[in-house]
Amino acid sequence: MAKRGGFPGGGMPGNMSNLMKQAQRMQRQMEESQKELEVKEFTAKAGGGAVEVTVTGAKEITGVKLSEEVVDPDDIEMLEDLIMAAANEALRMADEAGAAVMSKMTGGLGGGFPF
Hints:
- This protein is an alpha+beta fold.
- The protein has 2 helices and 3 strands; from the N terminus they run αβββα.
- Helix 1 packs antiparallel against helix 2 (76-106).
């Protein structure tokens, strides 16, 4: 009786085996890149440098620096806006770095596969 399905000899053909090895290598590289990105820091400034916020690639704020002249008890709202602006810019920088890593790893496939 003829054997149905599968591959001759019970193993994967050479091309399929190579594809699997490549995929595993790519996954390891992506994991390493992700770990590197998580500890990388991104700093952004607002208000002409009066407010500086630093975040990690893991999107955790690790530092906030305020210059004395921006601390005005009569204008707390401006200070809050500057902190938000600097934090959002630093987070955007972290997102862009993550997207660049993914683009590099996927070879410009746009993050997806055409199937």
